[in-house]
Specification:
By secondary structure, the chain is of the alpha/beta class. It is 20% helix and 39% strand. The chain has a single domain, classed as 2,3-Dihydroxybiphenyl 1,2-Dioxygenase, domain 1. It is globular and about 45 Å long. InterPro entries: Glyas_Bleomycin-R_OHBP_Dase.
Length: 206
C-alpha cells in the first residue's frame, strides 16, 4: 500500500442503516467514509475528529445545518475566529465532526461541496507519533513543533494534534476510555496511541 494514499476511514457504529442515512443526508460522503457494525465499548472522548474543509462560511453553515437536521447535536456553534469560520457537531453514532473554512467571506452561492476530508488524531506525543508515521512512509506536509503535524496524504488527509488541545478545540473533555471505534484504510498496523489501520482488502464495504 502506498502510504501517501489514505483511501478511507471506517467508523464502528451500532446501527449501520441509521448511520448511513445520517451521513448521506448530512455530508453526502461516499468513498472516503465506510461504516461497520460494532458494539465495541467506548466512553467519553474517542481521541479523534473527522474534519471537513470547505471554501467559504456559507458552505460551513450548509453542512452543519444539514447535519443538525439529520440528527446531530451541536458541540460548538459555527462562529468566526482569527483563523476563519467553523463549528463542531456530534453525529448520532458519537463521532465528532468539525466543519471549517479559512475564508472569512463568501465568494459564491452556498453549497455542500467538501474540499478536503481530514482525520485528525489526538495523540499523547506529537513528535513520537510524527516519527512513527514518517517511518511508515508518510511525508510531512506541515509541522508546528510538538503541537500539530499534517501529512501529505490523499484522498483522506491525516493530521496529528495533542489530545488535550484537540479536545479543547472541539469543546469536550479529554477523558475517554475504550475503543476509538475508528479504523484508517491505508496500511496494516496500530499506531502508538492505539489507532488501528487496515488494508483495503480487509476493509468493510461502503
Amino acid at each position: 500500500m502506498d502510504m501517501a494514499s489514505i483511501e478511507f476511514v471506517t467508523l464502528d457504529v451500532a446501527d449501520i442503516t441509521a448511520a448511513n442515512r445520517f451521513y448521506t443526508a448530512a455530508f453526502g460522503l461516499d468513498t472516503q467514509l465506510r461504516l461497520r457494525a460494532s458494539e465495541a465499548p467506548t466512553s467519553g472522548f474517542r481521541g479523534f475528529t473527522l474534519a471537513l474543509t470547505v471554501s467559504q462560511p456559507a458552505n460551513v453553515d450548509s453542512l452543519i445545518n444539514a447535519a443538525l437536521e439529520a440528527g446531530a447535536t451541536t458541540l460548538k456553534p459555527a462562529t468566526k475566529s482569527l483563523w476563519g469560520y467553523g463549528g463542531v457537531v456530534q453525529a448520532p453514532d458519537g463521532a465528532i465532526w468539525k466543519v471549517a473554512t479559512s475564508a472569512k467571506k463568501d465568494t459564491g452561492p452556498a453549497s455542500k461541496q467538501i474540499d478536503e476530508f481530514v482525520v485528525l488524531l489526538g495523540v499523547a506525543d506529537v513528535a513520537a507519533s510524527k516519527k512513527f508515521y514518517v517511518d511508515q512512509g508518510l511525508a510531512v506536509g506541515k509541522s508546528f513543533g510538538r503541537m500539530y503535524v499534517e501529512f501529505a496524504s490523499s484522498p483522506v488527509k491525516l493530521a496529528l494534534y495533542k489530545r488535550r488541545a484537540l479536545a479543547k478545540d472541539l469543546g469536550v473533555s479529554p477523558e475517554g476510555t475504550g475503543s476509538h471505534r475508528l479504523t484508517i484504510g491505508g496500511g496494516a498496523f496500530t499506531d502508538p496511541d492505539g489507532f488501528a489501520w487496515e488494508t483495503a482488502s480487509l476493509a468493510a464495504t461502503p
